[in-house]
What does this fold into?
Amino acid sequence: ASELLGLTEAEEALVDAKLRLGPVVRTLRQRRHLSQAALAKLIGSSQPRVAKIENRDPEVSLDLQMKAIFAANPGARRDFQGLIKKWGNERRARSAAVATGARGRR
It folds into this structure.
């Protein structure tokens, strides 16, 4: 499908993430026993907008999806920060490996 639409690998990953987040929002909301209206209030939005998030509406922004996740699961912020830290550590480790390899070839 990505070839047909001419999507880059990054664009394909973004579309995939957005599609996967809708059901995650629903699951997290239900685990906290929140109605769509209650979650909407927490994120400063409306119940129909939360329904669109949960039903994978393509017009819903990633920002709004993440806001809903953080509101429905307060621990998600910590988890996401851990993921960002992990990505940063992987980048530093690769950079160090490249630098070490370059010194070893001199």
Q: What stands out?
A: The chain has six helices and no strands. The two ends are 46 Å apart (CA to CA). The first helix runs from residue 2 to 5.
